[in-house]
């Protein structure tokens, strides 16, 4: 009986605003839910490209690739990023040549993706077209869209431990090289003010039956997507309900560096704090519904009082089935309060 | 006593016009000769870049790299090209993406060289500068110069086995994809007419005490170098004697596809045929001296009659010491007849 009721309420067109590892695992759960309910729902993913970086002359799109590899069964499941069966010989040799940066995890298999992408971009294709072409191989089972075809790069203003000077470091430098352990003062989406969402992105929002914000980083993943002018307005305008899942559990991120970056933007690192950052739709914000972890159930009233339908359920994405249950709860909550 | 006499006649500045595998092995022998005679000779290598190719957006310079890796102890000695300890994961993945060409041997370690080179070229450095930078790592013990900083690409007009049509195929396609087994009609050095030798190349010829033509391919290796306007004139003008070593032994190439390509340009595939192709210096050609294999000793008179000092000695480069003996013979022959 549970399965039948699940089927009845799965929306047809689901659009997800995703970062990398957390978003990809969330999407695996959503696909599992669709599969086990034998629904015909179609998923469109609007992926963060603010983490993108030019590395040794190649265009690297970590979040697009993490989603593509994860859903296409090419991911290293232990690391959560990069290719399974990966080797690091090109990286070793680049280091032997003494070229910088030497801290980025550029695997030999992964390199092929960046070579194909870079060559297609050089030939004049858009990142949207390139991503579509790469996905023909990986068949991720979702329509995967970069948030924009324009260059947007998330930078974090840090005090460089090497020289004590403040500088705007590319997000990858902050996260991979410094492991988010250096003091951060600001987050800046360079190029965002000049960027435009693609028509595909705008349609994925306006034509959706449901929008989901997975437990991705609210500052540099979902936050970067929202920084592209026009995307927030499209979310405010769509008829689809918007439901989010907290990536903060018990006052800390599950993975990544959201805690540090929420502090930079002066937002309380809690399930409620992030809900209030996104804001209630009824009050000019984004969220109709917000799922928090069972351990944070004390925050349900605060979030509800902020105008956002809230429920506490287990949020640990321990496996696709657990994640599917979480997705079902988010969908149910959104539909009950749409 | 032999060692002392060797030392007495080693020239100080030796310039070698080199192709890939054969040229690199020749250079190993020349270095061995210098080492065992404790001479202070300096070697400058003018390397063929007509084999260069853009591959998946990266600039690949097979002959420069073969010389650099061989003399820098990075070569796969079994294959004779590419890096030792090489893996092929990026190549596997490129094939999985279905991108062409899929027949080129692009190793993971090798890729790093092409990434560094391409990025430096994109930044505006000349190929000469880039090669110098790459050699800082490899320390090949020679001054390694591309024949030109301009783009020259050797093409072979073939009848394409896929569609029966004639087409100008890049040399790499002819050699690697078709293994020089398809009918060839012409060899064309595309861009050569517009190319210029660098000042470093011209000086390496004009200031040399000896010029050596190793047993590299006379059509597409040494031939491509000679196709750059100005290089042949510089060789004609230099005071240094010019000695060559036949890459043809007993009517066939030792390695490669010289036999096929000599046929294309209607030159007899023999030690004497190649000597006559280069021509005698005294008669407007390039050679003062020409070393042929012992098995071809019957051709000594014919070559001498053509105005080129000729001697038959063992030419098989079985190891660096055998090759050093061969180099010594070439140097001796050149000096006796300078």
**Biggest sheet descriptor of chain A:** 7 strands, parallel
Mean pLDDT of chain A: 95
The CATH homologous superfamily name of the largest domain in chain A equals CofD-like domains
The oligomeric status of these chains comes to: homodimer
| Total of domains of chain A | 3
Could you give the order of strands across the largest sheet of chain A? 5-2-1-9-10-13-14
Radius of gyration of chain A: 19 Å
Bin the strand percentage of chain A. Answer: 15-25%
Dominant shape of chain A: globular
Overview of the molecule:
- Chain A has a seven-stranded parallel sheet with strand order 5-2-1-9-10-13-14, sandwiched between helices. A three-stranded antiparallel sheet of chain A has the order 7-6-8.
- The two termini of chain A are 24 Å apart.
- Chain A is built from 14 helices and 14 strands.
- Chain A folds into three domains: 4-50 and 197-336, CofD-like domains (Rossmann fold), CATH 3.40.50; 53-65 and 74-135, CofD-like domain (Helicase, Ruva Protein, domain 3), CATH 1.10.8.240; 153-190, no CATH class.
- Chain A is globular.
- Chain A has helices spanning 2-8, 21-36, 62-71, 89-97, 108-122, 127-138, 171-177, 199-206, 222-226, 231-237, 258-264, 271-278, 300-305, 320-336, and strands at 13-18, 42-47, 53-55, 58-60, 143-146, 153-159, 166-170, 184-190, 210-213, 242-245, 248-249, 252-253, 289-293, 309-313.
- In chain A, helix 13 (300-305) links the parallel strand 13 (289-293) and strand 14 (309-313).
- Residues 1-8 of chain A have low confidence and may be disordered.
- By secondary structure, chain A is an alpha/beta fold.
- Helix content of chain A is 40%, strand content 19%.
- Chains A and B meet through helix 4 and helix 5 of A and helix 4 and helix 5 of B.
């Amino acid at each position: 009986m549970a399965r039948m009721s699940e089927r009845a309420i799965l929306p047809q067109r689901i659009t997800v605003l995703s970062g990398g590892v957390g978003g990809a695992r969330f999407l695996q759960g959503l696909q599992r839910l669709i599969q086990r309910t034998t629904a015909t729902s179609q998923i469109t993913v609007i992926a963060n490209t603010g983490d993108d970086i030019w590395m040794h002359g190649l265009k690297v799109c970590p979040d697009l690739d993490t989603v593509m590899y994860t859903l296409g069964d090419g991911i290293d499941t232990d690391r959560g990023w990069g290719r399974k069966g990966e080797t690091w010989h090109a990286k070793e040799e680049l280091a032997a040549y003494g070229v910088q940066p030497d801290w980025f995890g550029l695997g030999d298999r992964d390199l092929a993706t960046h070579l194909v992408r870079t060559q297609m971009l050089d030939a004049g294709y858009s990142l949207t077209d390139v991503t579509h072409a790469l996905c023909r191989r990986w068949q991720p089972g979702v329509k995967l869209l970069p948030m924009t075809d324009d260059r947007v790069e998330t930078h974090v203003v840090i005090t460089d431990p090497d020289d004590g000077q403040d500088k705007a470091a590319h997000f990858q430098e902050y996260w991979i090289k410094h492991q988010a352990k250096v003091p951060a003062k600001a987050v800046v989406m360079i190029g965002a003010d000049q960027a435009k969402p693609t028509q595909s992105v705008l349609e994925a929002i306006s034509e959706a039956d449901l929008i989901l914000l997975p437990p991705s980083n609210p500052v540099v993943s979902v936050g970067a997507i929202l920084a592209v002018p026009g995307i927030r307005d499209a979310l405010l305008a769509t008829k689809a309900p918007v439901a989010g899942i907290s990536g903060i559990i018990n006052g800390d991120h599950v993975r990544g560096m959201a805690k540090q970056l929420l502090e930079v933007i002066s937002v309380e690192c809690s399930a409620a704090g992030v809900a209030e950052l996104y804001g209630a739709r009824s009050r000019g914000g984004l969220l109709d519904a917000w799922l928090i972890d069972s351990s944070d159930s004390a925050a349900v009233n605060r979030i509800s009082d902020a105008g956002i339908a809230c429920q506490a359920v287990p949020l640990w994405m321990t496996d696709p089935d657990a994640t599917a249950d979480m997705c079902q709860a988010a969908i149910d909550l959104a539909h009950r309060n749409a």
